[in-house]
What we know:
By secondary structure, the protein is an alpha/beta fold. The protein has one domain (16-270). It has 8 helices and 9 strands. It has helices at 61-76, 91-104, 127-153, 175-185, 189-199, 223-243, 251-255, 257-264; strands spanning 2-3, 13-21, 33-44, 80-90, 117-120, 123-126, 158-163, 204-209, 268-271. α2 (91-104) packs across α3. The radius of gyration is 18 Å and the shape is globular. The protein starts with a strand and ends in a 6-residue tail after the last strand. The relative contact order is 0.21.
Amino acid sequence: MNSSGGTFDTKEYALGYADASPSELLHNSDSKYICIALVYFFYTKRSQLRKISQFKKTRGIKRKLQTQKYIIDSIEKGLIAPVGISNWNESSVALENGKYILKEAGIVTDEKDFSDLIEIGEHNLSYGHCVSLGWYSIVLSTFLKQIGQIAKIENKNKVAILLDLLPGDRIHNLRSFNVVEKIIDNSVLEEFQMEAIEENELEIMGYAYGLKDGTTKGIKNDFEYVITDWIVQSFYSLLIYEKEKLEKTSDEYQLSLLAKYLIDKGVFKIRNAFKLI
């Protein structure tokens, strides 16, 4: 896996943004499902957009729906041009595949209790933490073909997927990021990356954390990160609404309207549940 802490020039790089809901650490989640999305912005007219808060920091359903409507209106007015893909799966299936990819990457030789610690480099992480990152790594790798195809359309030969800061990580302590890197570099997932590079004639393809003023905190409030957060939350809401067969009066249905709009507009696709084993 090619990772970098340097500067990404959008004239050279096709930058995708990835995020998960309810959390990358699905082994700690009560949800039966997980949703991970990749978003690419053809453009974002920052000077014409008002600042919005992340989904979790927006209190109350009324304010959430107002922000969702603002994002939809901004797309309609041509202020934002997002495209992308959303993947969903059952948490139980995702966890089984996370266990499988950990073994293939040589991180463990047998299954353990989620609370058991395993040593990776200089860090000790719980087995459950690593299993969750295993599934996250699998989905990220499947996104490479999509972002590679976009890069080709945009006449760019360098690609980077910018990640939301993974649980447990800080800018000078990338223990979760390093696990993702180790999994991809030492498993069949590396082949996904090489295929995407060859098919789309790319020079560089990798993953990174975005930085602003030397930290990852400020970047979380940038438009692309915030809008990606809202998009993945909306696709997760759509997933829960459909799988649990909720009423149209439910919060989940109301919060899924952004996802439904992006699908109807033809700029987003849903990749249904899959498994490696």
